[in-house]
Amino acid sequence: MINITIVQAGLREPSSTAMLASLMRKHLEKQYFEAGQGVQFNEINLREYTHAIMDSLTVGFPSGELASKIQKLEESDGLIAVTPIFLASMSGLFKTFFDTLSQDALKSKPTLLGATAGTSRHTLALEHSVKPMFSYLKASVAPTSVFAATEEWGQSTHIEERVSTASKELIALIKNYDKRDDSKPLSFQELLNSKQNP
Amino acid sequence: MEFGIMTVGDVTTDPTTGKTPSEHERIKATLAIALKAEEVGLDVFATGEHHNPPFIPSSPTTTLGYLAAKTQRIKLSTSTTLITTNDPVKIAEDYSVLQHLTDGRMDLMMGRGNTGPVYPWFGKDIRDGLRLAVENYQLLHQLWREDIVNWEGNYRTPLRNFTLAPKPLNGEPPFVWHGSIRSPEIAEQAAYYGDGFFHNNIFWPMSHTKQMVELYRQRFEHYQEVPAHKAIVGLGGQVFMRKNSQDAKREFRPYFDNAPVYGHGPTMEDFTSQTPLTVGSPQEVIDRYAGMREHVGDYQRQLFLIDHAGLPLKTVLEQLDILGEEVIPVLRKENAQGRNPDAPSTPARGSKKIMKVEDN
Q1: CA of A51, closest CA in chain B: separation in Å?
Q2: Beta A89-90 vs A78-86: how paired, if at all?
């Protein structure tokens, strides 16, 4: 069974960010179904955890339901992350959520990025501002990310096509994802011996 | 089992009056708190070490030396002594002298310190924190056990034919704790040397504390070749009490809401459910802390933080009265009940095995 976590930072109801995330989910379900493979999703709708995320920032650790969601995220085979674009960048809530993760939480994690905004003028915010954060976290980001402006929701199959392509890329990344952690910290014995063998 | 208090030594404005104590007042208050701790029957007083405002304990052995002369019974300790930025030779000297002054009524806890800018002031780099803790303690351990020390490392000038003076009292080095919140390497270090492991869990959920203590006990068994319950475990704690639970909550809330570290974050109710902070009646504190050993096994030391966040001296002294009269006597009984008779009752080396690091 493939486990995929969906993090989305939509604020309103209905939310185009949530819509894009569920479209991605639908495509992945379909593609995995056609391949005869099971997939399940761990959904993190950040709005529900607004207070918990800020608390985690002030006290230094996530707790309760947020903590178990984050643990599931770390154990996931893949990640879908979708944010609204505010002021030419990801939303503050979206950024803050990732601020609370450990440095290695997304290491090599197959990741599909998506963003929504009012107009297509924000299209490249995904490339310029969202992607660098995931590069810093060493996530393995699918080459195609999906941007959806409000006007596009009414247009034919534009978004669907991109989501379909991006989903295929994510599935390919997940296939090659080796979850084993090869970056173990120095053991105490190694630390102890490092004086003898500098 | 030992019960005591630990102070951070923060100078913090009392949010209910807007009054900030002077450094002088805070230092004198710390002494009054320590003396009161002995008076109400506590076993341990421990002071932190900080080298930046708003903290006052930059010279712990000065304070502890003064207290040694003013007290008869209470054990004097640290929470923590910076093994990273202090010269291990100076730590060996300072605490050897303190051990003689107190006739052995002391121990100390190693810690790394988490304030980045402090390291460069002492010529160090916080990124070397773990390596410093390991190398410096290796030297300190050797200084307290070997007559003539020849030593060379990465972070300090080499020693040739160095002899520590004074030597530990009766040739018995002070008992050492290693404090760490999330570094498994430090739990491992404590286990390797057969020293105590202190998990200062005051800002952490019990699930995490349990994990760290379990790791330490396992590794202790491995290195010392004795059962895991022989390991020496200490925990932090934080309480505020009044006769009526609601009065305690009402009085402590402004201090909680404005406290350094966790203030302006979660609600007091959330934080008390997630961490060992207990605000309520003495009975509530007893219930919570009598249950700690269910998570970490029979342990040896419980230290409470009771004097931070701007609480006035008068209030802190009242807290000590409640601790000494109503809480600790019951906790002593509770912890004695059903305790594994093989688990050490107080901190002392849980094994006679001496880890000697190869000479280079």
Answers
A1: 8
A2: antiparallel
Measure the CA–CA gap between B191 and B233, rounded to whole angstroms. Answer: 11
Residues in B closer than 8 angstroms to A59, CB to CB, are 203, 261-262, 265-266, 271, 274
Backbone angles phi, psi at B103, to 5 degrees: 50, 40
Q: Which helix (H) or strand (E) holds B251?
A: helix B245-258
Q: How far apart are CA B65 and CA B98, in angstroms?
A: 6
Other C-beta atoms within 10 Å of A178: how many? 7
Contact in structure between A34 and A72 (CB atoms under 8 Å): no
Residues of B in contact with A198 (CB under 8 A): 154
CB proximity list for B280: less than 8 A, separation 6 or greater = B241, B245, B248, B249
B81 lies within 8 A of chain A by CB: no
* End-to-end CA, chain B: 40
Other Cβ atoms less than 10 A from the Cβ of B291: the count is 11
- Contacts for B98 with CB less than 8 Å, ≥ 6 apart: B61, B64, B65, B68, B76, B106
DSSP lists the bridge partners of residue B241 as: B280
Structure tokens at B162: 């160095």
- Which of chain B's residues have a Cβ under 8 Å away from the Cβ of A60? 203
Per-position pLDDT tens, chain B of length 360:
999 999 999 999 999 999 999 999 999 999 999 999 999 999 999 999 999 999 999 999 999 999 999 999 999 999 999 999 999 999 999 999 999 999 999 999 999 998 899 999 999 999 999 999 999 999 999 999 999 999 999 999 999 999 999 999 999 999 999 999 989 999 999 999 999 999 998 888 899 999 999 999 999 999 999 999 999 999 999 999 999 999 999 999 999 999 988 889 899 999 999 899 999 999 999 999 999 999 999 999 999 999 999 999 999 999 999 999 999 999 999 999 999 999 999 888 655 555 554 433
Q: Which two tokens stand for residue B103?
A: 């006739």
List CB contacts (< 8 A) between B130 and chain A.
Answer: 186, 191
Instruction: Annotate A55-122 with DSSP letters as a single string.
Output: HHHHHSS--HHHHHHHHHHHH-SEEEEEEEEETTEE-HHHHHHHHTS-TTTTTT-EEEEEEEESSGGG
Place of tokens 């190869």: B358
Q: Which of A112, A126, A117 has the alpha carbon at shortest distance from A6?
A: A112
By CA distance, what is B130's nearest residue in A? A191
The whole-model pTM stands at 0.89
| Helices and strands (DSSP H and E) totals, chain B | 13, 12
Cα torsion at A160, A165, A169, A175 (round to 10°)? 80
